[in-house]
Amino acid sequence: MAVALPVLAVAVVHAVWRGHRARAVAVVLAMAAVPLLVMPLKLWIDRPGPLTAESGYYPSGHTATAMVAYCGAALLLRHRTGRAGRGWAMPVAVVLSAATGIGLVLRGYHWPLDVLGSWLLCGMLLALLVAALRWIDNRGAAGSGTDAP
Length: 149
Prior knowledge:
The protein is mostly helical. It is built from 5 helices and no strands.
C-alpha cells in the first residue's frame, strides 16, 4: 500500500490536470470499494493465516489494494493519448499486482488462495470500472459531437 496508493494518487492528479475528472472519480470510487468488499469477506470467512492462529486473512487486502491501484492508474494513463508510449502501463500494472500477491505468499503472509481470491474479486471490480470508464468516454464523445471516444 505504501507504493500502490501514491502511484494511484499521481495518476489521479494527472487525469484531473488533463481535464478527465469523471474518469479520476470513477477510479477513486473503485479504490474506495476495495475495503468495502474485502473487509466483510474477511470477517465472514474468518480464515487463519499461514504462520499465525489469527484470522481474517481471506481475501488478501494488500493484493486487492495493489491490483486496483496499479490497474486503475494504468487505465487513467492510457486514456485517449494516441501516443505509442502508453501501451506499457497495463502490462506493468499486471506484473506489479502479480508480484505483490506472489511476494505475500512467499513471505508467508497469505495462503495462495487468499491472493487468488483477491485477484478474482478485483478482476470483477476492474471489469465494472472499465465499463464505467467506457460509459464516461461515450457520454463525453456524444456531448462533444465527435464519433471517437
